[in-house]
């Protein structure tokens, strides 16, 4: 009697790709929901970007506007993010 007959090996079957659920990052979902809340900061950032791009030589950067926009988004997202994590 062969040795492999003494051990039972569980059968593993792969699920079809269409049966698998697509994982969604809750942070991305919350960021989409926070876009209207931070619209004024995004508008200021876009205005700054247009102003900087329109000039050939400028020392201006939009760092402040980026920080303000990201701060707004982070503040909005963090309220609900940790309740959605497992």
Automatic annotation (TrEMBL):
Domain Ubiquinol-cytochrome C reductase hinge: 25-86
Source domain of life: Eukaryota
Locations listed in the record: Mitochondrion inner membrane
Pfam families: UCR_hinge
Range of residues in the leader sequence: none
Main subcellular localisation: mitochondrion
Swiss-Prot/TrEMBL keywords: Electron transport, Membrane, Mitochondrion, Mitochondrion inner membrane, Respiratory chain, Transport
Record-linked InterPro entries: Cyt_b-c1_6, Ubol_cytC_Rdtase_hinge_dom, Ubol_cytC_Rdtase_hinge_dom_sf
Membrane association type: Peripheral membrane protein
Family the UniProt entry places it in: Belongs to the UQCRH/QCR6 family.
Record's function text: Component of the ubiquinol-cytochrome c oxidoreductase, a multisubunit transmembrane complex that is part of the mitochondrial electron transport chain which drives oxidative phosphorylation.
PANTHER family assigned: CYTOCHROME B-C1 COMPLEX SUBUNIT 6, MITOCHONDRIAL (PTHR15336:SF0), UBIQUINOL-CYTOCHROME C REDUCTASE COMPLEX 7.8 KDA PROTEIN (PTHR15336)
Protein name (database record): Cytochrome b-c1 complex subunit 6
């Amino acid at each position: 009697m062969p040795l492999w007959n003494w051990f039972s090996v569980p059968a593993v079957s792969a699920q079809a790709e269409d049966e698998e659920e697509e994982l969604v990052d809750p942070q991305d979902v919350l960021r989409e929901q926070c876009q209207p809340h931070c619209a004024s900061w995004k508008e200021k950032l876009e205005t700054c970007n247009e102003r900087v791009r329109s000039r050939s030589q400028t020392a201006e950067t939009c760092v402040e506007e980026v920080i303000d926009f990201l701060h707004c988004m982070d503040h909005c997202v963090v309220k609900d993010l940790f309740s959605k994590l497992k």
